Amino acid sequence: MNKFKLLAFLLFVSVLANAQEKKWTLQECVNRALEKNISVKQTELDLEAAKIARLDALGNFIPNINASASNSWNTGLTTNVTTGILQTQTTRNFSAGVTASLTLFDGLRNFKQLQRAKLSRLAAEYSLDQMEDDITLMVADTYLQVLFNKQTLEVLRSQNEVTLEQIERTRELVDAGSVPQGDLLEILATNADEKQQIIIARNNVKISLISLAQMLLIKDYESFDIVERDYDILGTEVLDNSVYDVIDMAKEERSEIKIAEANRDLAEKDVEIAKGAYLPSFGGFFNYNTRESGAGRIVSVDVDPEDPTREIGVVEATGDVVVTPNTVSTIGNPLPFFEQLQRNDGISYGVQLNIPIFNGWATRNQVKRSEIDVQRANFQLEQAELDLEANVYQAYVDAQGAKEAYEAALVAVEAQEQAYEYATQRYEVGLSNALDFSQAKLRYENAVREVLRAKYDYIFNIKVLELYFGVPVSELKF
């Protein structure tokens, strides 16, 4: 048993260690966000609600069936259902029924409702697609920001190692009297500045990782990390198209326009539904009912032997007395429950026609409101097209600018690297002082960081432009 517990504990520790060592790729982060993100879940609920609305619309084409049953007790002065005499009594009565009704015609509103439900579901699907695109870009942007911060930290650490080597070399030269003490102080100051930048960069990495983890709904901030690899710049061929080609493709593919078009179609369908209230409605119904009572039943009716007749009136012309047999009813126990139900059942069926004549302008006003909604939806569609054009144009310009900035940064870093190597050589042979060397080194570090920033900015802007060009989220390449 002890060995088993030890093995289980070691297995648990191993699993925990592997979980903590897991590093997330960009694709895994995107998949996690699309699965767990609250905004995506809310949009998915809208889609589920649209599916339920479609079932509601389908329900208008099938009969409504309702059953009812009641069992009541009446106490007080009531008519005896057996004898027909008013008397103080307590009676129990049971009744039950089933009714089926079907709308045969309602101004085609049931057909229009079904069409509207289909449009509503389509609009919900477009909204989900747009939300997934937005979440993908947000995750990609944050992920690339983490990579930029990590690589910036590595650059700073690498350059600081060079600075530490220069400190040792400069100290030796100072001790030998080859360079002044000020050169050593200059490099020591550079080292202190680099240490401070490393601390800031390390904090930036941690903050960006926390931001990404929160986006993915991951609570274990301490162990959360991403895969550190260099991403290539892919998808640049989208810039081979003109901005107008990208705009035309975006109008065909982007969810913003599809959502606005669906909302316009919904508004137009609402007008048709509202106008259906002007037309008559026609339906049919069928009802089956039965009843049972706990009151006694009349078993037999016999002439009273003690008083066989009773006077019921007098003939006015002759004065003759009119009599009738005086009967006595024998009350017995009620019939069994199910036998009463069988004897007392009945059915009713028929059709019903409703013709609207006047309802205080309610139908007319609803039609007018729906027509206003159509105009509003048309304006929103027009605005969505204008916004999309502006956004695509901005994204296209940003992508082109990011490309030029990246290319310029590559040229600059190459030049600064050569200048730094030259300054290093001059400093090592004593032809320049520590200040010149530190300045050359600082310019080179800034150039390297600018290349990283420009590269990831370029990658992100290309992905934005690809989405506008109609590339699905699942096909984006990083």
Automatic annotation (TrEMBL):
Keyword Coiled coil part of the UniProt annotation: yes
Compartment(s) of residence: Cell outer membrane
Species for this entry: Autumnicola tepida
Family statement drawn from the similarity comment of this UniProt entry: Belongs to the outer membrane factor (OMF) (TC 1.B.17) family.
Coiled coil ranges: 250-277
Lineage of origin: Bacteria, Pseudomonadati, Bacteroidota, Flavobacteriia, Flavobacteriales
Name of the protein in question: TolC family protein
Signal peptide range in chain numbering: 1-19
Keywords: Cell outer membrane, Coiled coil, Membrane, Signal, Transmembrane, Transmembrane beta strand, Transport
Keyword Coiled coil: yes
Main localization, broad class: membrane
